[in-house]
Structure formats: C-alpha cells, structure tokens
Amino acid sequence: MPINRVFGSPNLCNMEPEKEMDQNMEGDHKYELQDMKKNKKKLGGIKTMPFILANEICDRFAATGSHANMITYLTKELNMPLVKASNTLTNFAGTASFTPLIGALIADSFAGRFWTILVASVIYELGLVSLTVSALLPQLRPPPCPAQENCKEASATQLWIIYLSLILTSIGIGGIRPCVVTFAADQFDMSKSKVESRSWNFFNWYYFCMGMASLTALTVVVYIQDNVGWGVGLAIPTIVMAFSIIVFLSGSPLYKKVKPGGSPLVRLTQVIVAAMKKRKEVAPHATDCLYKNRELDAAISSNGRLLHSDQFK
User: Fold this and answer.
1) Average per-residue pLDDT for the chain
2) pLDDT of 153 above 50
3) DSSP for residue 150
4) 124, 145, 285, 297: which could form a disulfide with 151 (CB 3.0–4.6 Å)?
5) pLDDT digits (tens, 9 = 90+) for 218-270
6) What is the pLDDT of residue 18?
7) Which among 180, 159, 168 is positioned nearest to 77, based on CA atoms?
8) What pLDDT score was predicted for residue 285?
C-alpha cells in the first residue's frame, strides 16, 4: 500500500479546519524559507570545512592510535591471556559496530548531528583519559613481568577500568562515525552546480586525510607505544582528541545546523503499523481526501512531496 494512502480517510474532504491549518502552515513555511535565505550566505559553505576536517582527522588519528596496538597492551601490560585479550577486543569491535545505529537514530530523532557529534566526542575523550590514566598509574596495572612466565593477571578493579574505557570509546564512536559525513554534506547547497563540485572536492580530501591520519597513527604512535612507553603512547591520542573537540566547537557559529526531521526507522514502523490497522479500509479515489501533513512531510522530504501513485498496493 502506498504511503500516501496508508493514512487515507474520506472524512478529511469536508474538514475546513484542516484547510485553515494548511494555510497557517504555508505561512509558517514561507517565513522559514525567508529566514533560510537570509542565513544562507552566513552559515555553512566551504569555510566550515577546515573545522570539520580537522575534527575528523584528529578523531581518526586518536582512534587508530589508541586501539591499533591494544592487543599488545592487554597481553604484555595487563598480563591477560591471548585468548581472553582477543575475546575482549572482539566484543569491543562488535559494540563499536552496533552503536552507530543508535547514534544515527538519536541524531535523526531529536538531538541533531552537531550535538550528537559533540557529546559523543566528549564521551570518547573520557574513555581515552581513563585508558591513559590506567597506563600511567602503576597501581592500576599488575606488576611487570618481562619474562612473560607465571605472571600475575590484572585484578577485577584493573580490568573494570579497561572495560569502562573501551565501552566509553565504543559509545563515542557510535555518535561520531554516522554523523560526521552527513553533517559535512549539510553545509553545502547541492542545488548549485558549483557547490556540488566543491562538495565532491571536499569528500576527496576527506578520505585522503582519513587515510593519512590512520597511516601516521599506525607508524608513529605504535612505535612510541612499543619503544618509549604506553603512558606517552596513549597520552598522545588523548591530547589529539581533546584538540579535535576544541576545533569542532570553535566552528560552531559558522555551521549550518539542520533540525532533526525524524528517523527513517520510526517512519517505516509507523507506516507498517498504520497499514496493518487500516488494511481493510478502501482508499478514496480523490487525492484531496488523502491524509496530508505539511509539517511532517517537509521534515522527511528533501525533493518535495512525492507524486501519488497506484503502484505498490
């Protein structure tokens, strides 16, 4: 059943308040368009890209530098058996792969991409700080065991600190990764050909910088961790991540912050539920009698209202 007929009801044809509501919404929509035109030249655009790029470069550098060599830290510094260490990191990777779904849902539903990225970055930074503190303080690690024989494993408290650090970083990843690219795309007006070409240039630089950040972290940071010390090796990503938050926040006055229009998952669920409830109702032939909500349609449609169709019944 097409979406535009799911909520159909013949009783809507003769409802004058609905027409007045549509007229009021048209007026509100007109003023919103005027405000958008006024702020169009002030917000967004290529001038916001240095802040977004710097934030994502630092984030990728910190994420790669703190977790690429984590198996070595767990086995040699915490004296964790290899199987247990591998299982721990596998659980962390699975959690970090699932949390972006929740982060995207939160951003689309009510928080918005800017605040989701900012709050997630702070949570990520807290995880890196706790991880760095555990590497710097001897009492948060078991005694050194250079021979790697009959080593004393980490205590429950020491392990919980590591687990808490990994959980916080997983939550941070879930809020950052699904929103950064979309937030960058929000800064461009794709209706203009020049702006569209600039956006493609930005995304080319984006992926190039991500690769360079990961490469630098895999070489420099991992070398420091293995040859200088884990305290310094984990402090560097922590400092870089703190710098990324400052850079991202400093560009806040320039960003175009698109209001959340609702999650597609929620919309899909609503359509399925409505279709099941009204599966026996007969759809009206006149399109004017179909349910319309200008406010909701504007929030989820980027190219205007979809045309009515008799397909997908």
Assistant:
1) 79
2) yes
3) S
4) 145
5) 999 999 999 999 999 999 999 999 999 999 999 999 998 888 877 777 777 87
6) 46
7) 159
8) 72
What's the rounded Cα separation, in Å, for the pair 279 and 287?
18
| pLDDT tier for residue 172 given thresholds of 50, 70 and 90 | very high
3, 268 Cβ separation under 8 angstroms: no
Between CA 248 and CA 186 the distance in angstroms is 15
- What one-character DSSP code corresponds to residue 169? H
Residue pair 142/78 in contact (Cβ under 8 Å)? The answer is yes
Alpha carbons 237 and 224: distance in angstroms, whole number: 11
Nearest-angstrom CA–CA distance, 85 and 208 = 32
Which tokens belong to 268?
């899909």
> Is 158:142 a contact under the CB 8 Å cutoff?
yes
Q: What does 88-135 look like in DSSP terms, one character per residue? A: HHHHHHHHHHHHHHHHHHHIIIII-HHHHHHHHHHHHHHHHHHHHHHH
- Domains of the chain, by residue range, sit at 48-254
- Structure confidence by residue, pLDDT tens digits, 32-48: 445 555 555 577 778 88
Residue 34 half-sphere exposure toward CB, CA atoms < 13 A: 6
The CATH topology of domain 48-254 is Growth Hormone; Chain: A; (1.20.1250)
Q: Maximum distance among all alpha carbons in the chain?
A: 85
Higher confidence at residue 61 or residue 295? 61
Which is it for the CA torsion 137, 142, 143, 147, positive or negative?
A: negative
- Using CA atoms, how far apart are residues 173 and 182, in angstroms rounded to an integer? 15
